[in-house]
Structure formats: C-alpha cells, structure tokens
Amino acid sequence: MKKAFSAFLAIALSALPLASLAASKETDRLENCGMVLDEILRIPDNVPQDLLDKAECVIVIPSVLKAAFVFGGDYGRGAMTCRSGEHFTGKWGAPTMIALEGGSFGFQLGGQATDFVILVMNPRGATAILSSKVKLGADASAAAGPKGRDAEAATDVTLRAEMLTYSRARGLFAGVSLEGSTLRPDNNANESIYHKKMDATNIVRKGGVAIPPAAQKMVSLLDQHSPKNTSDSKSLK
C-alpha cells in the first residue's frame, strides 16, 4: 500500500511542472495579445475607428514575440474578448483563448512572422465562434478589412461580413483574407489560464471568471479606444 501511494505521489508531483509550464505559456500569449494590439492601435492607418466601435468582439493572434511561443505554418494561438452584457453593449470582458487553424499563414517572407487581428462584427459571428469550430468563408462570412481612410471605400461585401481580418508583417498593416481557415475556442488553454474547466461561452457571455492579470492590457486598451458599441441596436438583438 505504501509503495502504491508513493508511486501515485511521485506521478502527481511530476505533473506539477508540466501544468505550471502550460499556464506560463498561456499567460505569455495573453500578454503578447496586449502588446500586439497596443502596437497596431498606434499605427496611423490602423483599424478604422468606426469599425472598431461596431465590433462585438476582437480576436488577436500574435506571432512569435521574444520567443514566447511558437507560431507554426498551419496554426496560431491567441485570445478573443467581447463586450459584456446581453447585447454586447457593456465593457470589454474576460477573454477566451482561441486557435486559428488550417491556413498557410505562418512564417512568411523568409521567416517573417505575422500578427492577426480579427473584428467580429455581429452577435451571430460571436456566438458561432464561442460554441464550436467555425470555417471562415463557409460557416461565417469573412473579408479583408479596410484600414484608415479606406474604410469609406469599403465594399458591400466588407460591410456585410461577420468578420473583418487584418495582418501585420514586416511592419506593414493591411486587410488580409483568411477564408478557408478555422477559428475555435482553445479550451485546454482556457483551463490553464483560469485553473478550472470553463467553456468559452461561460467565460465570455456569462461572466464566469474575472479578467486575468495577463489580459488586463488587452482589455483596458479596448475599453480606452472603443468604450461604446455604436452598432445599430436592432442588429444586436
């Protein structure tokens, strides 16, 4: 009996460093989301203010930043935060971790990594991502987002899109098509961040957790730059 207990204790203790490493990795990802968003919002021709103010959620997928984590050729990891309240009219809330998969959007141009920002423009798009895997262009309409002054020349396709997608590589910020890629909640990462099993809907829509310290920068930036949802109230119901 003592030998069995000792073996069990040894296994349990050996798992602790792995759990700690996973939590640290996800914390780095959240912090990098805030860093990337801050840098992008400082670009003169960045995401048009009018579109940011009409977005229900914002997804940030950072690339390799100071070797914090690996961003491969066919997947990326980041976070999604949404406005709180039944109709997405409150302050920005606790994020869910998100996985972007299936596209050749990784290291580009001789090893140059790419950051992505995705605006979720209506409740249907937000609900779809929170509940399951969503294929862009099939399960949810997506378009390369206009930037800066180009917002005034946005096409009907862009204006009707459920998601607007942007990239930054080699210092260049522009709309980019991610059709064919998929977005899904990364619930394993959520468990590492929140230290319990929580699905994305409970985190984002039901306020089941507080904003973790590592996400404070990302959330506070959005509260500062877009404190109010200016979408047509009828579109939010």
Fold and architecture overview:
The protein is of the alpha+beta class and 237 residues long. It has one domain (3-230). It has seven helices and nine strands, in the order ααββββαββαβββααα. It has helices at residues 2-41, 49-54, 123-131, 156-160, 187-194, 200-204, 216-225, and strands spanning 57-61, 75-82, 96-101, 115-120, 134-135, 142-144, 163-169, 172-175, 182-185. A hairpin with a 2-residue loop joins strand 7 (163-169) and strand 8 (172-175). It is globular and about 45 Å long. 39% of the residues are buried. Residues 12-16, 64-74 and 106-110 have low confidence and may be disordered.
Topology:
Blueprint: H1 2-41, H2 49-54, E1 57-61, E2 75-82, E3 96-101, E4 115-120, H3 123-131, E5 134-135, E6 142-144, H4 156-160, E7 163-169, E8 172-175, E9 182-185, H5 187-194, H6 200-204, H7 216-225
Parallel strand pairs: 6-7
Antiparallel strand pairs: 1-2, 1-4, 2-3, 3-9, 4-7, 5-9, 7-8
Helix pairs in contact: 1-5, 1-7
- Radius of gyration from the alpha-carbon trace, in angstroms: 19 Å
What summary fits the major beta sheet? 9 strands, mixed
How many DSSP helices?
Answer: 7
In terms of DSSP E residues, the strand content is 15-25%
Please, what is the average pLDDT?
82
According to DSSP, the number of beta strands is: 9
Portion of residues in helices?
25-40%
**Straight-line N-to-C gap:** 60 Å
The outline comes out as: globular
Low-confidence stretches: 12-16, 64-74, 106-110
Name the helix and strand elements from N-terminus to C-terminus, one letter apiece. Answer: HHEEEEHEEHEEEHHH
Q: How many structurally independent domains?
A: 1
Helix and strand content put the structural class at alpha+beta
